[in-house]
Amino acid sequence: MSRVPGWLGKVGAGLSEMGERLDERRTEVAKEHAEAAPEPPADDLRPPQPVPVPVVIARDRPEPALAVPWGVRVAAEAGWRLLILAGTVWVLMRVISAVQLVVLAFVAALLITALLQPTVTRLIGYGLPRGVATALTAILGFVVMGLIGWFVTWQVMANIDNLSDQVQNGVDDLRNWLLKGPFHVTEKQINQIAKNLREAIGANTDQITSAGLEGVQVIVEALTGILLTVFSTLFLLYDGPRIWQWSLKLVPAAARPAMAGAGPRAWRTLTAYVRGTVIVAFIDAVCIGVGIYFLGVPMAVPLAVFIFLFSFIPLVGAVASGALAVVVALVTQGVFTALMTLAVVLAVQQIEGHILQPFILGRAVRVHPLAVVLSVAAGGMIAGIGGAVVAVPLVAVLNTVVSYLKSYSQEPASNLSPKPRGATAVSATPTDSEPSDQAP
């Protein structure tokens, strides 16, 4: 027990000595820092500043946006913009679906105006007032369209009885050919097919009746659409320049010069498309009509008119009208005549695709076949036959507008719209004396 106080004393003495050494070392370090610091001027009466003690600060974290890879940021930026565009297109489609009849009537009026506008311009050039030229052109155009519809109806009604007899004889011939032909179809199988058809018709009687009732509504909507088309065409032919100027006021002022230049080019493209389509459809109808007439196919003239009308639906219309002619030839004249009709249709369509369309339509309205197929399919899904008809000219016009706007943003405006010698400004509004390829 006597050794414990002595041991504790030694420990205390050692700790005191260690503390003194630490104080001495701290004093030496402070002196070294003081000697390294610059001496203040002689007249500086400020008190000596404390020696700064180095402090280690942790590095700040980067911003979250900078931590995201560049590719992901680009994809996110493009993604939300695409979502906004998709939402805008969806809302636009909903609005168009709600007023589908009005939209189709106005688009049909634009197409008819593009077809009749050159006649109005020529009559004005001969000295007639614009109102008189518009009235004469509209009356003549709508009378011709009405006569075509009346002629088709008259031909169908006049030949319906004869066609029914020929169809019945054709069905009997087809039945005999199936029984005696290479397919080895039995009488029992043919009777079973006929029984299935009768049962299907009987089971869908309600749907057929409702379709007939809906047909009345379709007729009313068709008459309404025709009236809207007639009035819209009259106003577009007569007051097209002022309508175009009013439309430009809806565009922001910064984009107005570009749209003023794109409008006449879009109208020129639409006019070229309508003219070329009418000429190509007329040539197709005449050639196929003459061919099936000499083959003895009944109702050759109404079929030719149907071919003319269906030609306004690219690709699909030619196939549908040609198939209709082949089916009529098959059930009325037999397999050989049907094959010859098919040969005539294919030959005319090949001439159309490789000679007529490139020569008549030209490069101004050339659209890739894939774009044609997709646009016709989308137009048909959105608005039926009317949508399929207006899909391709809409794509052609959009292609022209986008190409011009792209060139306008890359080149000076003076290079895109050169002024004539002696002119001070280029007006975006066509006058009565300007050519018909200007915007309506």
Describe it.
This protein has about 450 residues and is an all-alpha fold. Helix content is about 80%, strand content about 0%. The chain contains 13 helices and no strands. It is elongated and about 140 Å long. The N and C termini lie far apart (about 120 Å). The C terminus is likely disordered.
Global Rg: 42 Å
Order of helices and strands: HHHHHHHHHHHHH
- Uncertain stretches: 416-438
Tell me the strand percentage band: under 5%
Q: How many β-strands, per DSSP?
A: 0
Q: Based on CA inertia axes, which overall geometry fits? A: elongated
Task: Explain briefly what this protein structure is.
This protein has helices at 3-36, 64-67, 70-98, 100-125, 130-180, 187-203, 205-249, 256-294, 300-310, 316-333, 335-360, 369-410, 413-416. It has 440 residues and is mainly α.
Draw up the topology in text.
Blueprint: H1 3-36, H2 64-67, H3 70-98, H4 100-125, H5 130-180, H6 187-203, H7 205-249, H8 256-294, H9 300-310, H10 316-333, H11 335-360, H12 369-410, H13 413-416
Helix pairs in contact: 4-5, 4-7, 4-8, 4-12, 5-7, 5-9, 5-10, 8-9, 8-11, 8-12, 9-10, 10-11
